[in-house]
Queue: 3 jobs
Job 1
Amino acid sequence: MPTRLSEIEKSQFCAIIRLGCDRATACMRLGVTPAQLRIELAQDEAFAKNVRRSAAEIELEHMRNLRKAGEDPKNWRVSQWWLERRAPQRYAARTFGAVSAEQLDALFDQLAEIIAEHVPHVDLATAIVERLERQRASWEQAVGAAAGDDPCASEVDEAAGEVRESDDDPPRDDPFPHEP
């Protein structure tokens, strides 16, 4: 059975996350395997919450920096950059011939209507439309992964709410002094 993380290691782990590193980097720095981390997160809800909050804190800090920079009209590109990444389906630059998620949905809806209209057997029409729906889900998943959709975004959003509720927490000291 893997060794449990000490409270000091948990604190250091969260400090590394608050610096902006990902979980893999924090694991490498502390000599923890991903399996150990998963077990620890599953067994210690307080630690899991602190990890989520730590990730949200650094994200919020950078969002504040972007918002502040964007207040200056000469930094209009900050707003453009943020919009492209926050809602790429609406704001990201597209290459010629690229299809948006909305366009793909409309195409599948039209195909379903055509099938329902022209395939006389209800069972066959239903089977074809269900197969198209499975294919659409597969494509959407692939497009989301390629676009960098974050499967943990809801966790970060949840933790961001926790951080907003307690922005008056005292700043934490960096447990890792600058190394020579």
Job 2
Amino acid sequence: MFCAIFEIAEISNLRSIEREAKPALMKNLLKCLGWGALLLMAYKIGSLAFLASPSNGKEATLNASTTTAVADLVIKGLHLTETSGDKLLWEIEADSARVYQQQQVARFRNIRLTLYEERAPVLKVQGDNGRLDMQGRDMVVKGNVIARSQAGLIFETNSLNWENKKRLLYTSDPVKITKVNIIIRGVGLVADVGLEKLKFNNGITTIIN
């Protein structure tokens, strides 16, 4: 089973939480997030599919606009982790987050995402903005996205999606991958969590300096 934990520096509720006592504040927070006592939620996932195609409609769902909605919560200074037993699966840090209860979406500003395999960090991703589907735990990082793998690859693109159930990364945007003196460019990509297995959609060019 998986657990999600928030570590919160400051909370502002744009609708109703203003100057409540701490117990009432936490009660409202838990209700808005829907993750149960102590901000934990356990759930089951299906089998891992390696380098399969992303689920149809996943990217469209994650990119659905919440700009016209009013956030239920604003969280400043966010640290979010997800575990399976004693294994850390991923970790998010962000300058701030906005939680939208109806859409079950959290949006992040200046996101830093770390993905883990066998208790070790294998990929660090940073971007201007991020979005988390609070039910399926799928994510998208957008704007000046840079990912660095444990193997030394540097991955650059405009957006990068994470499909949590299949543990796959994908994008439809142009990508640039650099390792030492080799640069690979392409358009669209599906990759495993450590960028060890890559599948470009088209437009691949390789430059050796």
Job 3
Amino acid sequence: MPRPNLTQDEVDSFRELAARTALEMVEEDGVDRLTLRALAARLGCSYAKPYRYFRDKAQLVDAVRGRAFDLLNEFMAAELETYDAASDRPMADLYLRFAREHPEAFRVMFEMKQELISPTTRESQARAWKTCAQPFHAAVTNGTLVGDPELIAHVAWAAVHGLASLELADQLYLGKNVDEVAIGLGAVLDGFRPGFVSRA
């Protein structure tokens, strides 16, 4: 008897469940141990079922990456509500917290070779970025910072992402810890503060 065709809602629902579950597995054991068979076992379905939704592991990891960016977006959006709108500190503080609390998700998002990046994952990346950049747009609007808010956000991101990556790789061993270095991240933004005279 032929298998009935799945509706798009059914496909989307299973893929969402699979991505969430696979991300949980990655956070527990790392991405190297993630397989479609292991996912099937975790979901309690046949080993063949995930292959109806994901061509191979690369496609599954892409879904995990998209879900991880959604997680970053949700985390940032919720936590930003607790910060003063005039502050330009939230991205550094919260980005480092996210990396510490979700190290394996962070590695999947940024550090491992990305064999596939689907349009859906690109959309998740864009949503997360918009939320991360929000404090810089607010800071430019209220005059705390001066300049292109997207450029300022990228400069700040480059600095804090480098710090988060160094901490996860256990490479801060030359006399300063991550919290001490994080205090200095504010200096990165000094060139965008009112009254700063550029020497470029």
